[in-house]
Amino acid sequence: MEDRVSGPGPGPEPRLVLVFSGKRKSGKDYLTDRIQERLGQDVCCILRLSGPLKHQYAQEHGLDLDQLLGPGPYKERYRGDMICWGETRRCQDPGFFCRLATRGALQPVWVVSDARRLSDLHWFQSKFPRQTRSVRVQSSEETRRQRGWSFTAGVDDAESECGLDSGVEFDWIITNEVDAPSLEEQLLPILKLAEESAVL
To answer: How much is the pLDDT for 131?
Structure first.
């Protein structure tokens, strides 16, 4: 289940913003959940840009928010239209969903679990230039298929899946594969920076 939008206006500035991106079923949520478990919820919050998007979309279209936030077929039925609707909103205001997602975040470490476009990354980099670091999660198509992914035209070839495939120099690239170094080992420098930032 994804996070709902919560909290009133802006809080204090974060000390570290980790912006994660990757394809569907690459393991972004799994990794960001592990980081939060390690740091604790008092230190680290997970910000999901798709949460406020789905909230707003459900509100404007009279849909069931809980089902849109879940992993089932209900969300898949509306995914294509939701992507188009989200793109229209972003064209009008590129920071719209980023602002909604960060509203009420008070922890010193923010983990953005699902950046999908350059405009998402650029918003955090321009708003928090000293604090923002980018992380790409990679998995092969075969591994993603084993996790339940299958190619969907209009979704997997849309900007929402391909917007950060090129033109970005990520601070870290995590390879989420069986034959890659352990995730614990790959996450070490990120966790070290997060822990140091939290106690500054």
So the answer is: 97
